[in-house]
């Protein structure tokens, strides 16, 4: 989504979104509101989502928010978000955090790949396509680490593992793109 759902409100201030940002848990907040939540807690660690209590390690401003950069107040909030992302988005997180972020990142990536107006670099697109194609070739091929013919349904585990690794790899690539767009150096 390029912005929060229509007729939705910030769950922190209960008002219309001002510099809307989407967290890696998929919830939307006003940029200034989520920065206040972060500053209210420890500024040395990422804040937790006020709705689901997951750690927020990446904030992605909506498209409309990015167009407001000329407004000094909006520019200041966007600088704070970039600083937040610089501090926390580049950190490698554990497998559980990566699994939780997977739906958020894959949905955003799919929308970005399907939208011809987006500027996803060709190198990134190529890496995503190559990962997906190589995974599909492995799954379709008769060569398996755990053969289905001998072990039945248990033999599908290696195929599921390859799909999971592919999705995690693709999500990591896209997370790096979002990090460099919204806070990386």
UniProtKB/TrEMBL annotation:
Recorded topology in the membrane: Multi-pass membrane protein
Annotated RING-type domain residues: 10-53
Superkingdom of origin organism: Eukaryota
GO CC, one annotated term: endomembrane system
SUPFAM superfamilies, per database record: RING/U-box
Keyword Metal-binding: yes
Keywords for this protein: Membrane, Metal-binding, Transmembrane, Transmembrane helix, Zinc, Zinc-finger
Key word rRNA processing present: no
MF GO annotations: ubiquitin protein ligase activity; zinc ion binding
Compartments it resides in: Endomembrane system
InterPro entries: DUF1232, RNF170, Znf_RING, Znf_RING/FYVE/PHD, Znf_RING_CS
Regions that span the bilayer: 122-140, 160-180
Protein name: E3 ubiquitin-protein ligase RNF170
Originating organism: Populus euphratica (Euphrates poplar)
Gene: LOC105130631
